[in-house]
Amino acid sequence: MAPHAAEGNRRLVLSRGFMAVSDQLINVAVPLPVAGPFTYRLPTELAARCTIGSRVFVPFRTKIRAGFVVPGPPNGDAPSEVRDVADVPEEPPYLRANLWEFIRWVADYYLLPVGLVLRTALPPGSDRRSRPWALLTSEGRRPRECQDPKQLYSFPRKLLKSGAMLLRELTNAIGEERVREAVNAGWVRVEERIARPRASLWKQRLPELLEPAGVRIEVAEEPPGLTADQESAFQRIEQAMEKGGFNPFLLFGVTGSGKTEVYLRAIQMTIAQGKRALVLVPEIALTPQLVRRFLRRFGTGVALFHSGLTPSQRLDEWRRIYAGLVNIVIAARSGIFVPLDNLGLIVVDEEHDPSYKQEDTCPYNARDMALARAKLEGACVILGSATPSFETFLNASRGRITRLDLPSRHHGGALPSVEVVDLKTVKQHEKKGAFLTSTLIKSIDAALNKHDQVVLFLNRRGFDTFSQCRSCGYVFRCPNCDVSLTHHKRTRDLRCHMCGFSRAAPPLCPQCRGTNMFFGGAGTQKVEEQVAALFPEARIERLDRDSTRRREDLEGILERFRRHEIDILAGTQMIVKGHDFPGIALVGVLCGDLSLHFPDFRAAERTFQLITQVAGRTGREKNSGRVILQTFDPDHYAIRHAAAHAYEAFFQSESALREELLYPPFGHLILIRIEGNSEKRVEDKAVAIGRAARQIKGGSREMTILGPAPAPRRKLAGRFRWHVLFKSAERRHVRDLVRNLAADGHLKGHGLKIVVDVDPVDML
After folding, report:
1. Where in 143-254 does DSSP place strands (E)?
2. How many CB atoms lie within 10 A of CB 147?
3. Per-residue confidence (pLDDT) for residue 415, from 0 to 100
4. Each residue of 312-329: pLDDT tens digit?
5. Could you give the 3-state DSSP secondary structure of residue 563?
6. How high is the pLDDT of residue 430?
7. What is the enclosing helix (H) or strand (E) of 305?
8. Of 626, 618, 519, 527, which Cα lies nearest the Cα of 571?
9. Global pTM value
10. pLDDT digits (tens, 9 = 90+) for 734-759
11. Is residue 434 a contact partner of residue 526, using CB atoms and an 8 Å limit?
């Protein structure tokens, strides 16, 4: 077993069908955080079942692991160093050669082990490893010949009946010493085995997912007509698709401009050309309306792929896609890796959404990878947004992406009028509690009198956002995270919205035993309660993570709102996720500053995007709608430009600051995040990485090293976190620095987790 060295940006030689094996040697990629692929010998009796992308079971270190056959010449190691493939299951392949090429590209770009990217790309259930099993031997089945016949009958009934059980289960049942005696006596043999996965009933459950209870999906007879702007945009896409090859587009359309219909027309043309389409959305669970619209247009030839499915469902969808049984895949960010053959179009809806960035162990950005995969496969890609990311908008400005504008709403109405309310000038008794000012209350009352619907947006859930003892100043904080606990009044508990820790809300201060407890701040639960007190006749509901624990809860709330069974809907940013409700006449942004002053250079951009997106929920019919934007900082350029629906003006204001400091999109970042249970070990490692990086950098002025320093969220889920940030105008400088650090062993630490985050999105 030996790793096959990567050869830079060399294009892989693609091959299909059964393998022509040279000396029965094959390359196997193992879904582990290792480089690979590795060379194995394929026994002749297994060769007929083996092809590119097949899953094979191979010995790897001390285990039997699932690996995947990938193209490329085998390594030239001596035959004595090559181990044999243990088994090849009789099942369809998982990968095509072009998908493997894409996985290798992702690993190279994000400076990750290719095995780690492979593990991220594959569906659950495909990555299997052996576990030790206890097998009852023929000697063990003959109790009369045993020295102690009673010993046999102390074995669990499961082992006696089936002859095999997990070693861990047997040890728990009779103890480690008794197991050792049984093995030494020859009654039990321990062997590494891989259990076969169970077949799922996903095909029977599929209609239930596509057609939730009470919602009937029917295929539309005729698509709606296009506006002049939509027609112009579609014609540009149509011409590019007829020409063929890689063609990237930014569909820059205001909220309600009809971007989805342009997607649908482009997909229809893709299918007519005999090709397939991939549609990425930020969170499928939050966009059932969008999914149903695709299903109405195209019927059952659609697959869904996202983390809300069970592991067996995701595995079965993967196989349906690989087998070519669908023409369209609608997916969350993980769908960028689905095995769609003959890919003609990738759509990335709401491309600015940070949900496209995978954090943690294998960081990648599905939006950026959509461009990379489309280029590798010669496909068209459409990035759609009313508030594009700065990276996408700058690329469009420089001509790297073709910009298509939809400057007006599809029904011809105007964008909503925005009234800014300065919370600093509001009397204290008005703004206390849930930020319900007299201006907003009067506007809600007027909308309800006209039987219109109202949306209230506050990007904080819970009832009170912090709890404090007024006698001694003690603040209830999460023991696992560096944040205060949020008070949830209905359940009478304090919760951490980072790690999920909760405790009962105590009547006494745990520090001074005083009773003078203060609960401050406002969340969506408080908004819901106070609005209900002000408007007792109104039908009010809340849309946040707490009220939608189950998928059925979310769909129920959205469906009731669509049927005008809800008058006022209060919620967090879940409200802004592409929902289209024509009856909304008023949107109240209760506090527009909550995301504005985070220690993150993207804070202003995210604030602008959130306000613009939530404001766009109103005025979806002929009436323009109205927005009440409450803020403590009405003069901030993000607030002013959001109120004026002026994206390009905001881009110019923010770009001037970023360009001066070389922040994206004018500079390139790589964040090294060090995590661990010991704060001192984390700090020491971060200091060591920073010192080594500066030694490698030397006197070069091409790059800036920031830190090491504690992360803004210093502690998360019980682990301490430190950051080291590399910044440069040229991408190659920061990449070369990280490669040198890795080559010298500086990015490894026992008991620590060190993550290399290329193009970081979450700086907290």
Report:
1. 164-166, 188-193, 247-253
2. 6
3. 86
4. 788 888 888 998 889 999
5. coil
6. 62
7. strand 302-305
8. 527
9. 0.85
10. 999 999 999 999 999 888 999 999 99
11. yes
CB atoms within 10 A of CB 180: 12
8 Å CB contact between 715 and 638: no
Report helix, strand or coil for 496: coil
Tell me how far apart the alpha carbons of residues 295 and 211 are, in angstroms, rounded to a whole number: 9
Strand 25-29 with 38-41, pairing? antiparallel
* Bridge-based pairing state of the strands 417-422 and 626-631: parallel
Residue 517 forms beta bridges with which residues?
469
In terms of DSSP bridges, do strands 493-495 and 568-571 run parallel, antiparallel, or are they unpaired? Answer: unpaired
The owner of tokens 């106070």 is: 530
Strands (E) across 590-635 are located at 626-631
DSSP letter at 693 equals H
Short-list 676, 670, 691, CA closest to 722 = 676
Q: Which of 553, 554, 610 has the alpha carbon at shortest distance from 587? A: 610
Band of pLDDT at residue 2, cut at 50, 70 and 90: very low
Coil/strand/helix, residue 370? helix
Note whether 589 and 457 are within 8 A (CB).
yes
Counts of helices then strands in the chain (DSSP H, E): 22, 32
Q: Are β-strands 328-331 and 302-305 bridged in parallel, bridged antiparallel, or unpaired?
A: parallel
More confident residue, 468 or 662: 662
- Cβ atoms < 10 Å from Cβ of 132: 14
Helix 288-298 crosses helix 259-272 at what angle (to 10 degrees)? Answer: 40
Does residue 105 surpass a pLDDT of 90? yes
Q: Which helix (H) or strand (E) holds 117?
A: helix 114-121
Q: Is 464 exposed, middle or buried, given 0-12, 13-18 or 19+ CB atoms closer than 10 A?
A: buried
Q: What is the pLDDT of residue 616?
A: 86
Give the DSSP H/E element, type plus range, for residue 289: helix 288-298
Contact 180, 170 (CB under 8 A): no
Q: How many C-alpha atoms does 581 have within 13 Å on its Cβ side?
A: 32
570-622: per-residue pLDDT in tens? 988 888 776 777 788 899 999 888 888 888 899 999 999 999 999 888 876 65
Rg (CA), the chain: 29
C-alpha to C-alpha distance for 134 and 58, rounded to whole angstroms: 20
DSSP state of 226: P
Say what the pLDDT of residue 291 is: 78
Q: Give the percent of the chain with pLDDT over 70.
A: 88
Cis peptide before 582 (omega within 30 of 0): no
Identify which has the larger pLDDT, 641 or 424.
641
And the tokens for 582?
């024509």
Find out whether 349 and 262 touch, Cβ atoms under 8 Å.
no
